[in-house]
Request: fold
Amino acid sequence: MIPQPVQDRLDQLPRDEVRRRLVNEGDRRYLELGPEDRELRLRLGIETDRLGPQKVVVLWNEACDLPVGGYLVVDNLAMGCPALGGVRLAPDVTPATIASLARGMTMKNAARILAAILLIGAPAFAGVVYEIEVSDHTTSPVSTTGSRISVDGLLLKMDITTSGDDIDGEMIYRGDRKEMVVVNDRDKTYFVLDEEQIKALAAQINQAMSAMEQALAAVPEGQRAKMETMMKQRMPMQMDQREPSELKKTGETDTINGYPCVKYQVWRGGALERELWVTPWENIEGGADTAQAFEDMSAFFKEMLDSLPQMGDQSFGDSAFEHLKEMGGIPVVTREFADDGSLDNESVLKSAKQQALDPVDFEPPKDYKRKDMFKGMKK
Reply:
């Protein structure tokens, strides 16, 4: 049967529209709203912007004796599948809450991509611009985009591109304030992510998980075992810890784009996860005195990601940073591999040049509007 809170939400939509678009598949019932259904989404409390959500679904099981139903939100699939996600079990969950959680996963994944790219470019006190080429091997044909990283002291800005050379926004790290600013040039907005917000979000997630555990404890033993099995299947990274990774120096050497490199591999559970061709810091123009500043920024990202253990892969936060000191340099080439051993993506440092940078470039434009990333999650 449909839960009453879900029915209450459906009652906010035009009845004829719901009747026309409701899909019946056996015992399952669901209503799907795409990006074009902006007004209908607003009635559910979900705002639509350029990033997403890509899909909003209201669903329930009609034949079940218990009220089983809820909401599915797919925020953004720009980086392909599989995507990061999670499940929230609570009697008072709302579509807006799920949409905010989904957006949080989008930005967390963006932070992971930034972290990976940052490994091939470090901050430079004199001002350095790094040109990066990123190839996505999960598409056919392989798609390639260019990215630029500008750094000055503890300030770093990376251009965000969705296709070709068009810039859609920037991600700015400010080490002086321990915060990350994500700028959307399309709708002239930005949001700020700092340690205080991450800790508050982590506390909300931990509270929700605690409430879920209490709810499970009240379920009859037979049903509880089934629900726990289902949760483990749906959220394996939340239920089990992954094996630690191991860095191996292969001894292979090569010169890539003019940089003498040594090859490293990262293995986890007997599978090759990452391949890196690393050159010492002093071989990069403007990079000799930047290791400490870069490690400070790395620690910031790692602390943020590690504080959100319930949102996806628990070892996710340290994947891009854990072996930085051991390698003693920065990767010129980084190759990420999928679980089946196929090449997932490749990042290549094309050039690094010192130049004067304007401090204004490390702030969002004054006419842009600041948005609350966690709107709808606060109580």
Summary: DSSP finds nine helices and 16 strands in the chain.
